[in-house]
Amino acid sequence: MKPFWESKQLADMSDEEWESLCDGCGKCCLFKFQDEDTDEMFFTHVACKLFDASTCRCSSYDTRFKSVPECADIRKFTAKEFHWLPERCTYRLLFEGKKLKPWHPLISGDPNSVHSAEISMQNRVINEVDADLDNLEDYIDDALI
User: Fold this and answer.
1) Domain around 25
2) If you write DSSP's letter for every residue of 40-94 in order, what string do you get?
3) Does 12 reside within a domain?
4) First to last CA, the chain
């Protein structure tokens, strides 16, 4: 029998299945912007104020939309919006019909494998409260993605 992520579409997954897909990389919590002419995405090493860089998790996950209204609700993404996610993001991979990476906790069985593989943003970002948000382009760091 195939695992749920190979047998179901994202839209058909339960909340528990959906949440288990998150590999804990933290890249969706980074500030990013899109070139208006080319649609290319640029990621910074500045994270949301709720991002805990030591755990790579949101410090207020259940109330994040109240605390940060602009927080992206990936579950509600349209087909056009999935390209806003990093290329290795599990949600984007599955949306594009690709397989999970070997370091994904659902494959490895280890919740820390994303950190061991140096895929996560664990201790690699600065919090938005410590950044000059008026000059966000100075923080572009495609090496993280």
Assistant:
1) 21-144
2) -EEEEEEE-TTEETTTTEETTGGGHHHH-TT---GGG--GGGGGGS-TT-HHHHH
3) no
4) 33
Condensed to tens digits (0 to 9), the pLDDT of residues 82-132 reads 988 988 999 999 999 999 999 999 999 999 999 999 999 999 999 999 999
Q: What is the dihedral of CA 60, 45, 26, 109, to 10 degrees?
A: -140
In a domain, 4, yes or no: no
Cα(75)–Cα(18) distance, integer angstroms: 8
Q: How many CB atoms lie within 10 A of CB 35?
A: 9
Q: How many domains does the structure of the chain reveal?
A: 1
Does residue 79 fall inside a structural domain? yes
Residue 119 placed within a domain: yes
Q: Tell me the residue type at 62.
A: D
pLDDT tens digits for range 21-46: 999 999 999 999 888 899 888 899 99
